[in-house]
Design brief:
With 207 residues, the chain is an alpha/beta fold. 39% of the residues lie in helices and 27% in strands. One of its GO terms (cellular component) is cytoplasm.
Length: 207
């Protein structure tokens, strides 16, 4: 279950910040290591140039950006609306010596003008969290889709990992403005004789 409010996100990342300062532990990786490997493998398979501009939406502790940098990507930006998440990711960036990673406090539902022209946008769980917002979740989801359209270049790639939405539901949410390129393989689970995916990972291309 995802923390519903901004203040609870801030509190969670403040705790992770303290833990990192005490122990050097960067905290939880959303959807686990394999979700990062899946994204990086896809970018490599597509031969996405290493200098392509990449935006990590809701970067949290910024560990995905660190892994992208280690894989050779050089034009990386992470945003989060929690200032303590950005503080934590800045500390981890310093520890890893990855000073070229750009980090900003941004509310993606009201992105600033300089957030534009990205060739790749990545979301691991941020759309899920926005969808659980008790206040006007439908409006916020629509605004999220508009925001992705505004920050991503035409024909840019949008990679989304979700545990709340099926492929069909995501196709419906992002049908306007995007076309699906492929579904990435995710771990399957079996429950009551039915096989399903607990996580959906899709690649869209902006029209």
């Amino acid at each position: 279950f995802l923390p519903p409010s901004k203040s609870s996100w801030d509190a969670a990342y403040e705790r992770e910040l303290e833990t990192f300062q005490d122990t050097g532990d960067a905290g939880e990786i959303w959807f686990g290591e394999e979700s990062m490997v899946r994204i990086i493998r896809w970018l490599e398979k597509q031969k996405v140039p290493l200098e392509s501009s990449v935006l990590d939406i809701g970067t949290g502790n910024g560990v995905l950006l660190i892994e992208l940098a280690k894989s050779g990507y050089t034009n990386l930006t992470g945003i989060d609306y929690s200032p303590s998440a950005i503080q934590l990711s800045e500390k981890i960036r310093e520890k890893e010596g990855m000073s070229h990673i750009k980090l900003k406090v941004e509310d993606f539902l009201a992105p600033s003008a300089e957030l534009s022209g990205f060739e790749i946008c990545i979301d691991k769980g941020t759309f899920d969290a926005i969808s659980l917002n008790p206040e006007n979740a439908v409006g916020k989801r629509k605004q999220y889709v508009r925001s992705v359209c505004s920050v991503l270049k035409p024909e840019g790639f949008f990679l989304i990992t979700s545990c709340n939405w099926t492929k069909e539901e995501l196709l419906n949410e992002f049908g306007e403005g995007f076309e699906i390129l492929e579904e990435l393989p995710t771990p399957k689970f079996c429950f009551g004789g039915r096989i399903g995916n607990s996580v959906t990972a899709l690649v869209f291309q902006r029209k």
